[in-house]
Amino acid sequence: MATKQRLGINIDHVATLRNARGGAYPDPLRAALIAEAAGADGITAHLREDRRHIRDADIEALMEGLTVPLNFEIAATAEMHAIALRLKPHAVCIVPEKREERTTEGGLEVLADQDRLADFILPLSEARCRVSLFVAADERQLEACARVGAEVVELHTGAYCDFHAKGNAKAASDELERITRCAVFADGLGLEVHAGHGLTFNNVAPIAALPQVAELNIGHFLVGEAVFMGFAHAILEMRRLMQSARV
Fold this sequence. Notes:
Elements: E1 6-10, H1 12-21, H2 28-37, E2 42-46, H3 56-65, E3 70-74, H4 78-87, E4 91-94, H5 114-126, E5 130-135, H6 139-148, E6 152-156, H7 158-165, H8 169-188, E7 192-196, H9 204-208, E8 213-218, H10 220-229, H11 231-246
Parallel strand pairs: 1-2, 1-8, 2-3, 3-4, 4-5, 5-6, 6-7, 7-8
């Protein structure tokens, strides 16, 4: 069960903003260093197959420039496997990925792909990368995560956040109950529990309050809030809300 809850900052959408003009700024590494100075416990970056935001050079720069751990998000492809094994980041989070999606939709299908994922994970674990699987709050998927050798699961909070934003209190409450139950279940399997996707100042507290959740990974919202209050101040406010929820 988690004690001090960590905050990982996803910097993908700093790269999205950079790529909109095709230039060199804003620089994702600079954003990561600001996050680090503001107290982030780690940096998350997703190198997608289509390189729509983070690029290979960004990952190289993060590996060289960070003093906090890098959580390297990838799809379970041969190309990404080779990159992760070459770089050996602190953590590798395997996520589902479809070229046509705007952002990651739903959790990884672990149950139906156990043999392939076990083979994918083993060399990463042997390279001393902490392997995480980004999954929906579903007990069967969590059992499969444990079987394939993951150390960590990250529970997808997107549905909870969407219901919360739409004012559908009953559906949000039901989804929160499911996440709560699965956090306890995953912890009981010996998996470290993380959570993320869609978290904001308005909805983070109930997720942060879950004692089994060791880490939250938050990005898009904080990059957006940086326009209004600055990146460091947005991170500090998120940290304050997380800590308040744990009291």
